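Section 3.1 - Work completed
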Amino acid sequence: MTDSDHPDTRHPSNARERFDRWSSSYDSRRSRLFFERLHRRLAPLLAVGDARRVLDVGCGTGNLAVSLALDHPGVSVTGIDFSPGMISAAREKLSPVVDVSFRVAAAEELPFDDGGFDLVYSTLSFHHWEDRRKGLTECARVLRPGGRLIVVDITGDRWYCRMYRVFGRFRHLTGHVAYAKAAEISGLFEERGLTDVRQERIWPSIVLTAGYLPV
């Protein structure tokens, strides 16, 4: 069995409280430098193209969502996060010059109609999802036919990530973090009917997985 087979062992309420506390320091200089570097690497890989409705799942304090909207005038970006504290911090970055909105929601219960987005992406959030299968099913549901889903996450292929897998039964001591292997993520994409699933290792421990919803 894999960690993704045990969604009931995680503690979303504890995680939400932890992220609420973290929201006030999330944009510290050290964190900002890390995410700015990551976002520069991701910008061309997200391949917004002709997408006009974009969803950021697990948006944190909204940095990538706002940056994406600034770089692509005419694109409407919606960011969701299960932490009210993170969303509160994200809303402080809203500006009339960008079409961005934020709301509190979890990946497993997206409050949107079917087929409402051209591009759905998630960065460094997947390992926090309470139920990965349900979350990816929801992401696929809100994609339009031909739309693209992208998940960028730390994978369990490296030894320091495997420690969480080895001690998964003690996850209440480490939060609800559980890193999936790259092959597991691509398999979950394919289970949901996504096609042309591709992966790219963008950093030693971070893999981008992308796939399309069939037309």
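Second construct:
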Amino acid sequence: MAAKKGRKQVVRCLSCKKLRIKCDQVRPKCEYCAHTNRECIYPSDIPTSETNAEKDSPVEDIRRDLPLTQLTSVLSVSQLELRALKFFNDIGKLIVSYKNQRYIDNWEAVINPLSFQSPIVKKTLLATSSMLLSHFMNINTVDSKVLTSSFSVDSSQEAQAFFQTGTKYLQESIDERKHLLQDNSGFGIERIIVNDLITFGCLLIYNHKLVPLISATGYDVISMAKAYSDTRKMYSQSMTGLRLESLFFPKSNPILTCPPETNYWFTRVLEFEIVAFVSRNGNKSANMEEYFQALMDTFLLLKDACYAMAIVRFPFPLIACLTNFSDKYRQLLRNGDEFAFRLLFIYSCLCVISRIPLNRNDNIFVDYISEFKNIIFSKYGEFSYPIDRELYHLVIRTNFVVDFGDMTRFHPLQQCEPLMDLSWLERYIDSLEKTNTLLQCI
């Protein structure tokens, strides 16, 4: 009897092996990797030993410290880029997540695996890692001081190299996104959504004014946030099962919605001011009810974000407001509506005191805050609303920050009295309540 033949060994590329799908074993790229624009790496392509040159190099070979899955995915990147990735894995993820373990776990479960397979996600992660490292060249641990301090790009030549690498990859990923939108497969959609998530955080946390918050040209964060939001809405059904929603904070999440009867120090004031402003200026709007609703929806979005920040104890619900702004509110901004600008001013102030930008005094939020102040002063000679004056003082003249869990309890009369005179606030609120009562009677 003839000897039984042994089972033929199946050789698959690492991407197909990880997904447990059939691989046609074509080189240099199998059909799956070619279709999804992934790097196609076979086990036989992985070096089994270091070269003598690597052993003799005085630069630490960071690849030895990376898990095998990471090693096989970053073989084509430079030593500089490997260092940035290692920094992000060890330190950077704690900074961008504000040490929130739930977010770290979701990031590692969703984003890390995709960055090993998708060139655009890999580029965006390299951009984030490199730009972040340019701020924290000498940081070895992440404590409360790191999370509450203001950081600029390190002045060293090495840090500048990391920053340039980061901006290069960020631009490449933004350009590549346009091409990926033509791919309607689940793989393409997932890559776009994850790329948008990382890019959006990168632009807001350490933007370095690469893209302004809002601009007359339309090339700004407001427009990019709308593009990201539109993509998510367009492919919402295709996202089912991709585990991506856990990384976002949609306004529809009932757990993160503030109870209607709840008020904070600024929401009580702001709601009355919106009613009074619309009543005085309603004739300037083609549809007063629609105009009022656009402002109120934005106000409620900010209120929900503050509530959600206290629940999850980190600032991403506030960041997510930019993608959750309504199209009507965005159009008001484009039309130069004064109160819409004011709501964006208040939002920017909340972002600064919530420690979202790495550099407190030099970021897109402070730029907009200063621009808004100049617009209002050129028209009225001073701030139109006292609360704006105090918020401006709090952001520009002090280093005040608020703990995320304390955002719902943040009250100037209790926490900021040593910094400024707020004796006017209760009297001002009383006057607003009386005005609101009179308007309801008209």
